[in-house]
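Practice record 12: protein with adenosine-5'-diphosphate.
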Amino acid sequence: MPWKTLDDIDFAGKRALVRVDINVPVEDGVVTDTTRIERIIPTVDDIQAKGGKVILMAHFGRPKGKVVPEMSLEVIAPVVADVLGLPVTWVNSDYADAVAAMEGDEVLLLENLRFNPGEEKNDEGFAKRLASLGDIYVNDAFSAAHRAHASTEAIARLLPACAGRLMAEELGALEKALGTPERPVVAVVGGAKVSTKLDLLGNLVTKVDALVIGGGMANTFLAAQGINVGKSLCEHDLAETARDIAQKAADAGCEILLPRDVVVAREFKAGAPSEVLKTEECPEDAMILDAGPDSVAHIIQVFERSKTLVWNGPLGAFEIEPFDAATNAAAAKAAALSKDGRLISVAGGGDTVAALNKAGAADDFSYISTAGGAFLEWMEGKTLPGVAALG
Ligand code: ADP
Ligand code: MG
C-alpha cells in the first residue's frame, strides 16, 4: 500500500488532526442517522489507545465559505460525544487555546471547515493554520478524498500523514476490486444515462473481463446497434460514443453483456401492466424498464464464473415494482456467492446502495461504499487528490 496507516505512526503524546466525514442528515435540529459518526469510532479509539489526542475536522452541508448558523457543527457535537462515548468539545474560536487545554480523553471538534473560504480553495494559509494545531494528520474521510481541499490535500503535505481505519478499509476494498483483483472480474454498470458514466465505462472496459450494461443506459447501446427501443429512456445522440465504447471493449478483450430480453410497459408507475419480450421486440409505444429473466440468467452465469464483482447502477427502474426484479435477482446471487466466499463484491453509488438495501443483499456484499462521488471517480480510474496526498 502506498499510504501509511495508524500502525505506522507513533501517536504517544501527540495531537492528531483527524479529517472525518460526519456530514449526517439532520431534520428539525435532530440527527436522524448516526452511521457516519459510528464509522469513525475505530480511528478515534485507536489513536487514543496509542496515547494520542484527537482533534476532529469536518464539513457540514455547503455553506460556501461563509458562516451559516444552521450549518454549525455545534448541534452535532453532543451526538458525536454520545456515539463515541467520550467528552467532545466543540470550538469555533481560540482554537490554539482549546487545544492546549485538552484533558484526558477529551476530543475536540473544530467548527465546520467550509465556513472558511480557504477550505474549498485548498488554500495553503488556511491549511497551515489547521496544521499548527496538531502534530500528525489523519484522513479518515474517503468520501471527501476526490476534492482537493485544505483539510484533505494541502494539510497532508504539511504534517506527517496517514490514512485512518475507515479510509484504509475503503482503499483496501477498492484495491482488491479493481487495483489487483482476482480474475475474472465482472462489472455491472446500470442506472439512467450513459452521459453521466462515460469515463466510468471507458475505464472499466480496459480493466474488467466482462461488463454487464443495464438500466436506461443499456437502451442507448441497443439503439446504437440499430435496435428499436420505442419510448424508452435513451440518449440517441450518444450512439457513436456507445459504439466507440463497445469497440474499445472488443479491443481489450472485455465481453459486453446487453439485455437479451426486457420488461416493457406503457406507463412508469407501480402495477402498470408489463410484459417480457425479446430485446428486438420492444413496441413503438412502450418503454424498457428492466432486464428480463433470460438476461438475469446470463448475468448469474457470469457471476458464477467470476472471482470479483464491481457494481454501480441498478439494472432497471428499481424504485417501482415489478421493475426491481432483475436488480433484486442479480443482487441476491452476488450476495450468496460472496457469503460462500466465492466472490469478492464491491458496490457503490447512491441509488445502487438503495437498490441493494431494498433487495436485502447489501449485508452480504464484501464491501459497500457509501462514498458517492469519490467512489465513482475511483471507478473512473481517476487519482483522488486526498489519497494521492497521503502517499
Ligand atoms: P447511482 O446513483 O447508483 O450511481 P444512477 O443514478 O446512475 O445510479 O441510476 C439510478 C436510476 O436509474 C434510478 O433512478 C432508476 O430508476 C434509473 N433507471 C434504471 N433503469 C432504467 C430504465 N430502464 N429506464 C429509466 N430509468 C432507469
Ligand atoms: Mg443516482
